[in-house]
Amino acid sequence: xxxxxxxxxxxxxxxxxxxxxxxxxxxxxxxxxxxxxxxxxxxxxxxxxxxxxxxxxxxxxxxxxxxxxxxxxxxxxxxxxxxxxxxxxxxxxxxxxxxxxxxxxxxxxxxxxxxxxxxxxxxxxxxxxxxxxxxxxxxxxxxxxxxxxxxxxxxxxxxxxxxxxxxxxxxxxxxxxxxxxxxxxxxxxxxxxxxxxxxxxxxxxxxxxxxxxxx
Length: 215
Prior knowledge:
Number of strands: 11
Radius of gyration: 19 Å
Largest sheet: 6 strands, parallel
Oligomer: single chain
Strand content: 15-25%
Shape: elongated
Order of helices and strands: EHEEEEHEHEHEEEEHH
């Protein structure tokens, strides 16, 4: 039976790489998929991995209707054997409902990829709806690591190396940005709670007036 599968994890854990791998494996067997994305780091209409892999995709902007798009594609004689939706956390709950309808009414597998929570540890609405509707939720096994070496479980937004705790939920950025740009860093829960980024930890280590961060 077709399924709606949600692959979730923190930033930098290989979600987009897995999406590209699924596309490669299925296309190698003669299947044809439809790839969608939203606000990818490589720009509009691209699905990219930090490993340097990139492919074309349909940009699912605000108001985009997945079900109507696929029905129109199939009605014109197009082929689609499965659907990949990357950056699914940015989708509206109604768009997730459309993906579920694609599974149920068009009998297509849908593989959605996204992070679950934002920089404030709050659920993205799209991710919340995926957890509610998905046939399966798969947590990726490639663990991203906090600067301390522990498993990273939270996404932090940074500016100038310092953790930002206020602002719009969606601000496009990436890990390894320069310090004067909005960037992101993955942290363990302990250091996310303490707002202790790698830059803050280095600064603390150089100061004789602070206690060790793990004391």
